[in-house]
Amino acid sequence: MKVIELRRTVTDSNDRDAEALRRELRSKGIFLINLMSAAGSGKTTLLSRTITDLTGKVDIGVMEADIASDVDAVRISGLGAQSIQMHTDGMCHVDAGMARAGIEAMEDLKADVVFLENVGNLICPAEFDTGAHRKVMILSVPEGDDKPLKYPLMFRESDALVITKTDALPYFDFDLDAAKRRALALNPDIRIFPVSAKTGEGMAEWEDWLLSELEAWKRDA
Amino acid sequence: MHELGIVEHVIRTLHDVAEENNVRRIGSVTLEVGEVSGVVMDLLTDCWNWFREKDDLVKGAELLTETIEAVTVCTACDKTYRTVDHGKTCPHCGSKETYLLRGNEFSIKQIEAELFDDPEDGEPETE
Hints:
The structure holds two protein chains of two kinds.
Chain A (H helix, E strand, L loop, with lengths): L1 E8 L2 H17 L2 E6 L6 H11 L6 E7 L4 H7 L4 E6 L8 H10 L7 E5 L16 E7 L6 H4 L1 H6 L2 E5 L11 H11 L4 E4 L8 H18 L1
Parallel strand pairs in A: 2-5, 2-6, 3-4, 3-5, 6-7, 7-8
Chain B lengths: L1 H20 L1 E12 L6 H11 L10 E7 L2 E4 L5 E3 H4 L11 E5 L3 E10 L12
Parallel strand pairs in B: 1-2
Antiparallel strand pairs in B: 1-6, 3-4, 3-5
């Protein structure tokens, strides 16, 4: 037997697939956003409101990744946005191969922005590049302001942090300033948007950022 | 099940390596695993043992691991310390302005392989 030295990171094959997908989406003019959060943090509610608010300004598509069911995709398609449900068959994250399969399964896709709603989990999705152009994470008020301390990688990897369910702030011991400070300590460049998709508070700032990132991405071409 | 996905990626990488290096069969795979990489080794080994039987290239291949000690650097006092013992707070000066120097690695260090057209190897070895 011969010994072959490799020193390759385990995610090498995925990293290459992700880079290839990112380039292909660029040529198709599709801006892909990997949306990550814990289960029940309000990903689908945030997207529903964002889609409704941006109707006429930008076409949004959604790939819902869940271990099972299609309840989220049904909610999104009710808003007139193109959506597809992906099942990860028990896997805890979406990788570049799955993201590609999702994009290819969306026939006649006419979206400027596609959100990949990753599996609800703050750990594994942070480690796998999906080929997305931006990474956005959600932290909801009921989850607590200590999450940056517990799941640092997710906060380090994300371009933006949306703090959802701010209408529930009066009922929880959630220190908004502490959450912001902890996230910024891990990632000084992260953009933070406290929002309530229910009341609409803060949604404009988040949506403006989204549109400006889309424009910046188009200019980079 | 994070570990299952990792094993799938390891095996895909091994197939690429096998093609580049004219490998017929892999006898062992050595991983370098940082102490704070978050991978549960027992689960990883279970996944490996299940997966390897479904793939001719790695059938029966042994999974070996080398642990890399996690070390954190303090930017306030420039000293280093063991991450596992003290986490994010520097035990020397109490600062939280620290960063991980090493210990979150997860990489394939090397493989033992039997090549095509290698007279020394010939038939698969039994050890």
